[in-house]
Write a structure and sequence with these properties.
This protein has 312 residues and is α+β, with helices and mostly antiparallel strands. It has helices at residues 66-78, 100-116, 122-137, 143-149, 184-196, 202-222, 226-242, 248-259, 283-295; strands at 5-16, 27-43, 48-51, 54-57, 84-90, 154-156, 163-164, 172-177, 264-268, 275-280, 300-305. The strands form 2 sheets. Strands 1, 2, 3, 4, 5, 6 and 7 form a 7-stranded mixed β-sheet that branches. A 4-stranded antiparallel β-sheet has the order 9-10-8-11. Strand 6 (154-156) and strand 7 (163-164) form a beta hairpin. Helix 1 runs antiparallel to helix 3. The longest helix is centred in the last third of the chain and has 21 residues, at 202-222. The protein is globular, with a radius of gyration of 19 Å. The model has no long low-confidence stretch (mean pLDDT 95). Bound molecules: (R)-mevalonate. Residues 14, 18-19, 21-22, 97, 99, 137, 140-141, 143-144, 184, 188, 269-270 line the site of (R)-mevalonate.
């Protein structure tokens, strides 16, 4: 065993297919390298957790950190190495649809296995992260764990092998944080209630259409059709609204981005707060959109190139 273990993970962005992915529809996500998380673990006299939101005993950590407690308990059960001190440093905004809960579980699991000086297969990593995500999200599809632990864009279908593909499109993506905590757990649960209380299958129709849009988006990306991808994003946002996972703030920022010249815009991740994304042809246009979003309430914005160079 080493004296200290290190683990890393990235934020993630879902380009298409959030919520529908829980029902077996495909989604497109990529690691968002502009944000990341680092965990370090070392043996200690008692279990300790140090992060931006909390500094103290693991046992006394607030309920919002329950998924970390569950993960540490499981790791300790499988490898009883005694009390540990955990230090987490993150630039992924928490509860904003960027996968922070999955990323923290990925980074901790990696740090734990690094401390053990044992190799960790992707399969084993994802199994641990899923346990933590069940606490954080209720019924996770696994897309957040996959995208925050990997380095490549992926076309993801629950329960299927990962299908990596290059984001080879001459466009830029603006990511904007509403500054309001998203409510992924509640949103996933509410969609599930809508599905089960909908004998006419209207909700499932929106879910299937979202899946079909993910397929079309993959084609638009591979054929470098920027306007087509933008139209698909706009269409997806309408279906997400029908699933009740958008809200006034997201709708306002989406409208702001479109009025400022974005070709397409939608929410990303769990919704009901969190982040939105917008597509532009050029970086300059993306900067104009960012300025408009910040003037209208976005607390942070990022620009991500979607050309093949980005993930080369
Ligand atoms: C959350 O980032 C994405 C959701 O589709 C939930 C999930 O897939 O686990 C809303």
């Amino acid at each position: 065993m080493k004296t200290i273990g290190y683990g890393k993970a990235n934020g993630k962005i879902i380009l298409m297919g959030e919520h529908a992915v829980v029902y077996g529809e495909p989604a497109i996500a990529f690691p968002f390298l502009a944000t990341n998380i680092n965990a370090t673990i070392h043996p200690c006299d008692s279990f300790q957790l140090h992060c931006a939101y909390y500094d103290g005993s693991l046992e006394g950590a607030p309920e919002t950190l329950n998924s970390i407690k569950v993960l540490i308990n499981q790791l300790q059960k499988d490898f009883p190495i005694g009390p540990l001190s955990l230090n987490i440093e993150s630039t992924i905004p928490a509860e904003r649809g960027m996968g922070s809960s999955a990323a923290v579980a990925v980074a901790i699991t990696r740090a734990f296995f690094d401390l053990l000086d044992q190799s960790l297969s992707q399969e084993k990593l994802l199994a641990y992260v899923e346990q933590a995500e069940r606490i954080a999200h209720g019924n996770p599809s696994g897309i957040d764990a996959a995208a925050t632990s990997g380095h490549d864009p992926m076309y993801f279908t629950k329960g299927h092998p990962f299908n990596f593909f290059p984001l080879n499109i001459d466009a830029f993506l603006v990511v904007a944080d509403t500054g309001v905590k998203g409510q992924t757990r509640e949103a996933v649960k509410d969609v599930s209630n809508l599905v089960s209380g909908d004998p006419g299958q209207e909700i499932m129709r929106h879910i299937h259409l979202l899946g079909a849009l993910s397929k079309e988006a993959k084609k638009a990306i591979s054929e470098n059709q920027v306007q087509r991808l933008a139209d698909i994003m706009n269409e997806a946002q309408q279906h997400l609204k029908k699933l009740t996972v958008s809200n006034q703030l997201l709708d306002t920022l989406i409208q702001t981005a479109l009025s400022a010249g974005a070709l397409g815009a939608k929410l990303t991740g769990g919704g009901r707060g969190g982040c939105m994304i917008a597509l532009t042809n050029t970086k300059k246009e993306a900067q104009v959109v960012c300025e408009a979003l910040e003037k209208n309430g976005a607390v942070s914005t990022w620009i991500q190139g979607l050309g093949v160079h980005t993930y080369a």
